[in-house]
Amino acid sequence: MRVLEHPAPLQADQARLLLKALADPLRLQVIEALGSGERCVCELTAELGLAQSKLSFHLRVMKEAGLIAAREEGRWVYYRLELAAIALLRDWLSTLAAGSATPATPCC
Questions:
Q1: CATH number for the segment(s) 12-96
Q2: Consecutive sets of 10 residues in the chain, 108 residues long: mean pLDDT of each?
């Protein structure tokens, strides 16, 4: 999923893709680490105690889902949260929460 500058509301299939990417505990740790700002892959490897190959797999999944973005500077790759995707997911969850207060219609 690629997040546009002025995205439409998140569709259920897009939400499932984002939630699936977040469902792994290691990916949540990466998201939490990136919550404090952009990080070099070498920093993430050291902080999370992961082999670079394992971390690269999880970063690729999150990048393909649109949760994170990467930029290269020299031989280093820096990752950051894709704030638009986080906002879309937050808004989608808020819409679900708002609708959950609606009482059921009486059964026949």
A1: 1.10.10.10
A2: 60 91 95 96 93 95 96 94 94 89 85
